[in-house]
Specification:
mainly alpha, two-stranded antiparallel ribbon, about 40% helix, elongated
Length: about 450
C-alpha cells in the first residue's frame, strides 16, 4: 500500500457528512458560524449522523435575533476556507500475499481446449477428404456407343409448368443430361410421352440414358425391353421370362390362354406377334402377352382384304404364317413357300412340313425317328392332309404378309440344300433329283 493514501474502514456506523467550511474574519477574531441553508428543504428529512471518532464540543449557539430585529449585515471581508482537522490516521497491515504474476490457465483445462480444437480440425479434414473422394467418383467419365465421354455429376434442373417438350429437351441438353435434344424428342414421340412431362425440380446425372430421363419426367413405371424372336413358341417365351427372373414359370402361358379364351379363339399359338416390346417390369408376363396379342390384331388389319384371307379365314392364314416362319428366316423365300403350301392344300396333298411334328414333340434339335412320322397325330403333316389344328410358333409381320399374299408358282415340293439355298420341284421325281444334288 502506498503511503500517500489512507484507508478508511467502515465499522457499521452511518456515513459521516461532509462539513461546510466556516467563515472567519481576517482579524483573527472568531466569527459567528453561519450555515448556508439549502435552496429548499421542504419535503426533505434530516437525520443525525454519528461518527466513530470523538470530536470536540462545539460552542453553544448564539440566541437567534428577535424577529423584529434586523439581521446583522457583515461587511465584505477577505475569507479563506478552513477545513476541519482530519481524523486520526489508522494504520492497517495487510497479510503478505506475494507479487501478482497474472492469471494462469490450469494445465488440465489447456489440454482439454487443445484436444477439442484438434478434434474439430480432424473432423473438418475428414469431411474434406470424403467430399473430394465423392467428387472424384462423380467425375468418372463414361462412354457409350462410341459417343464422347461425358462426366457424370449431379445436376438439379427445374421444369416449369407450361414448358413444351422441345424446351425441356433443349434444357436437358444444355445441362449435359442428354446427348441430343432431337433424339430425346423422337423417343418421346415414339413412346407417346411428349404430352406427359411433369413440372418440378429433378436431380439428374450427366449423360443419363434418355429412357431413364423420360421415366423420371413422366412418372411412367420402369419399362423392360423384351425381344421375342421370329419363330419362338409361347412355351419358349415363358421359359425366357422365368429364367431371367422377370416372371414366374407358367405365368405368361396362363396370360396367353386367358386372352384367347376371352376372345373366343380356337387356339393360342400363332395369335401372338413376334417382335421387341417394352413392358412393365412389375407385370412383365401379363403386359407382354397383351402387347403381343394386340400387335397381331393390328398387323392383321392391312391383310384382311386379301383373297386368301377371305377364302380361308383369319385363323387358317395365321396357321400358315406360323408354318412359313418355322420353315425359313429368309423373308425373300417366304412368298414362294406360301405359294407351294397353297398348291398342296388345293391338291389335297399332305404338307409334309416336319416343323409341325417338332412342335408336337417339343424337340427342335434332334433328328426325328421314322416311327414318329408313321403315327397319325394332329400335327403330323406327313400322314394327314390339310392344316394342323393350330399354329406352331409366333410369326413375324413378313410371314403374315406372305401367308396372305402367296407367290404364284407351279411347284409342289421344296427343300433347302447344304448351301442353304431353296430348291423347288413340280413333281416328286424332280424333288428326288434335288435331294441327290443338294443334300
Amino acid at each position: 500500500m502506498s503511503e500517500d493514501k489512507q484507508l478508511e474502514l467502515d465499522f457499521g456506523g452511518e456515513p459521516k457528512p461532509k462539513r461546510k467550511p466556516a467563515i472567519r474574519k481576517k482579524s483573527g477574531t472568531q466569527a459567528k458560524h453561519v450555515e448556508e441553508k439549502p435552496a429548499s428543504t421542504k419535503g426533505k428529512s434530516t437525520r443525525k449522523t454519528t461518527s466513530s471518532t470523538p470530536r470536540k464540543k462545539s460552542p453553544p449557539k448564539s440566541k437567534p435575533l428577535p424577529k423584529q430585529e434586523k439581521p446583522v449585515i457583515l461587511e465584505p471581508v477577505t475569507t479563506q476556507l478552513l477545513l476541519p482537522p482530519p481524523p486520526p490516521r489508522m494504520e492497517v497491515v495487510l497479510p503478505e500475499i506475494g507479487e501478482r504474476k497474472g492469471y494462469k490457465t490450469p494445465i488440465s483445462h489447456t489440454l482439454l481446449v487443445i484436444a477439442v480444437t484438434l478434434g474439430v480440425l480432424f473432423c473438418l479434414l475428414g469431411l474434406l477428404v470424403i467430399l473430394q473422394t465423392q467428387r472424384r467418383k462423380e467425375s468418372v467419365s463414361v462412354s457409350s456407343g462410341g459417343d464422347k465421354a461425358i462426366s457424370t455429376t449431379s445436376v438439379a434442373v427445374e421444369i416449369h409448368a407450361g414448358m413444351s417438350a422441345r424446351q425441356v429437351a433443349v434444357l436437358l441438353e444444355e445441362n449435359g443430361i442428354i446427348r441430343s435434344s432431337d433424339a430425346f424428342i423422337s423417343y418421346l414421340m415414339a413412346q407417346d410421352l411428349a404430352g406427359k412431362l411433369r413440372s418440378g425440380t429433378y436431380l439428374f446425372e450427366k449423360g443419363m440414358d434418355q429412357e431413364v430421363v423420360a421415366r423420371m419426367l413422366t412418372g411412367v413405371s420402369e419399362k423392360l425391353s423384351v425381344v421375342v424372336s421370329n419363330g419362338s413358341t409361347l412355351k419358349a417365351v415363358d421359359g425366357y421370362l422365368s429364367q431371367r427372373g422377370y416372371a414366374d414359370e407358367g405365368k405368361f402361358l396362363k396370360a396367353a390362354e386367358a386372352l384367347v379364351a376371352s376372345d373366343g379363339l380356337s387356339f393360342s399359338e400363332g395369335w401372338f406377334l413376334a417382335g421387341t416390346y417394352a413392358v412393365r417390369r412389375e407385370d412383365t408376363a401379363n403386359d407382354l402377352a397383351v402387347q403381343m396379342h394386340q400387335a397381331m390384331l393390328a398387323a392383321l388389319v392391312p391383310v384382311t382384304g386379301s383373297a386368301v384371307v377371305k377364302d380361308l379365314g383369319v385363323e387358317d392364314v395365321l396357321v400358315i404364317a406360323s408354318l412359313i416362319q418355322a420353315e425359313t428366316q429368309n423373308e425373300a423365300e417366304m412368298p414362294l413357300i406360301s405359294g407351294i403350301i397353297q398348291n398342296r392344300l388345293k391338291a389335297d396333298i399332305p404338307l409334309g412340313i416336319d416343323a409341325t411334328t417338332r412342335y408336337e414333340t417339343g424337340d427342335w434339335t434332334h433328328a426325328i425317328a421314322q416311327d414318329v412320322f408313321e403315327k397319325q397325330t394332329p400335327y403330323n403333316t406327313r400322314r394327314k392332309t390339310g392344316l394342323p389344328p393350330g399354329g406352331i410358333c409366333c410369326p413375324g409381320e413378313a410371314a403374315l404378309k406372305a401367308a396372305a399374299s402367296p407367290l404364284a408358282t407351279d411347284a409342289l415340293f421344296y427343300l433347302h440344300g447344304k448351301d442353304g439355298t431353296i430348291h423347288t420341284a413340280k413333281d416328286y421325281q424332280g424333288h428326288q433329283k434335288n435331294i441327290r444334288l443338294y443334300l
